Amino acid sequence: AIEAEVRSSLISFLGNLSNHGVVAAIGWKQESDPCVDGWNGIACDAQNASVTKLRLEGFNLSGSLDMGSLCNMPAIASSLARLVLNGNNLGGGVPAQISICRQLTHLQIGGNKFEGELPDSLATLDNLKVLNVSYNNISGNLPNLSRISGLQIFLAQDNQLSGKIPAFDFYNFDEFNISYNNFSGQIPDVQGYFNSSSFIGNPFLCGYPLPNNCPQDKRKGVSGEQVLMYSGYALLGSLLVGAVGFKLCKKKMKKTGKVDSENSALSIDGSGNKATVPSSEHKTSATLNRPEVSATSVESGVVSSSLVVVTRPTVNGLMFEELLRAPAELLGRGRHGSLYKVICENGAMYAVKRIKDWAISGEDFKKRMQRIDQVKHPNVLPAAAFYSSQQEKLLVYEFQQNGSLFRLLHGTQMGRAFEWGSRLNFAASIAKGLATMHRELRDVEIAHGNLKSSNILLTKDMEPCISEYGLMVLYDHQDLTPSLITPAFEPNHRSNPSMPRAFGSDVYGFGVILLELLTGKMVHDKGFDLPKWVLSVVQEEWTVEVFDKSLILEGVSEERMVNLLQVAIKCVNRSPEARPSMTQVTSMIATIKEEEDRSLAYET
Ligand SMILES: Nc1ncnc2c1ncn2[C@@H]1O[C@H](COP(=O)(O)OP(=O)(O)OP(=O)(O)O)[C@@H](O)[C@H]1O
């Protein structure tokens, strides 16, 4: 039973925040027991011996919180895990004594009228998982909440908080929102976990995932990266000029020797290989909405028709003026470059990839891209256009709205059914696409170079297609998985001694994709190495638990999953020479599919 002292302090806590009519109305009575008699808004432990939750949402409570009266009482401080006071009219400061309630895992005081600063003592609530202070009038700096390692949800949107964002490890968060405050400075690395909606409405905040990038360090010059960071237009400007250079301008320039460069903020040379933007252009441009760069270029009159390096029926009508005017949103900054999403006025969407640090000459890059473009396969996404200068290489793809295989498997759509049949079809289609590319590009040894589930996009028909083919020269997956490097390969197992090494690396990447399809697990999840894990499970104590639970629930036969797993294991062999070729992989998967179809025929 709950002590009389605790009961009376609960009643006075609520009474102070409302008229006592509310206390009676919700059934809190000194003579009854909060746990046994089920006081509204209170939850207790299993033995009904202590109060664990206080949930008083939307009770029209007002006045200021006196946490001392509750938290100074050991019986409460040692058990209260959740305090939920969202949607009231509570005001005044958030009391520092709240932190005496050390067991709090959930503190939710959103949608009130709290003001002043958050007390530093909040950062000492080591058990906090959920902190919601959103929709109040709280100002000042955030306490150093990044020290609470278990924090999973932090909501502080719509306040007047300011200062820098603490160095949170965003990996740990399920939800994070500090939008519409007065935070300033650079956003810490969100590691791809949150998009701009978590940060918008803070005029002085900069950096990814917001579109406006941070002012450059004046000591350094303007690098190619910064040029792009400063203005989406600059990116598209150079893209534009590049395309002009490749297509239309080439002819014109033979005659005139140059393209209206005096009028333009962007200038190019005759080969279209140089696109520069004066640095003064960037220092002032913190947003994408700057018409001046585009206007001058467009005025040059050169950019008047569809200027696409690689023409496709669907992008023939692509107007570069439009592409230029459209805002560019930074979608990702990976190991090998940044990806921007561009939406044109007519609704057409493009993904523009800027590759960094690739020491390939403009001419070689052009040849390479044209060669790749000659191979067509329905499961390989062709580039719509590309551009190359000394400083940067840009590729334009049609934007695929259905996301990637990575997102399908691990993202928010996770709940969506992704059945065995579809997974097998995905595996077969990707294998076919890759095998075709390898076969057709064997003489030049152009591999994909960075095959992974985020590079497998879903078309509008939900078919998988491989994107960004050939954007990396020999990027070996083993870079990422040193555990798998083995100099001592076993000659007996050499199935493809002559397979170019870069192709072997793609086969490895494909094997990992198969493992993701089979296990539903992520490749690199906090030090977890998927191939290594699968191999250890398979070698030691074999268990069906290696497979994705949803496949087991679906009732997929273990035998068929094991067959595909065996293909995957061959692909992730430590020795590149021992891996099968993609043509071999394709036929192995085709056999599994045939078996599958035969068994389905039996079942019906
Ligand atoms: N054409 C496209 N249409 C739609 N989404 C795309 C397109 N290309 C890439 N994406 C998605 O945009 C995000 C960022 O792409 P990006 O290529 O920068 O990431 P990455 O593949 O993880 O990194 P990297 O390729 O540099 O190793 C990924 O989630 C990817 O699936």
From TrEMBL:
Keywords: ATP-binding, Glycoprotein, Leucine-rich repeat, Membrane, Nucleotide-binding, Repeat, Signal, Transmembrane, Transmembrane helix. Residues 325-592 form the Protein kinase domain. Residues 270-292 are annotated as: Disordered. GO terms for cellular component: membrane. InterPro entries: Kinase-like_dom_sf, Leu-rich_rpt, LRR_dom_sf, PRK1-6/SRF4-like, Prot_kinase_dom, Protein_kinase_ATP_BS. Its main location: membrane. ATP binds at K353. It is found in: Membrane. Coiled coil: none annotated. The keyword Zinc-finger does not apply. It is a single-pass type I membrane protein. One of its GO terms (molecular function) is ATP binding. Belongs to the RLP family. This is Protein kinase domain-containing protein. It comes from Eucalyptus globulus. The lineage of its organism: Eukaryota, Viridiplantae, Streptophyta, Embryophyta, Tracheophyta.
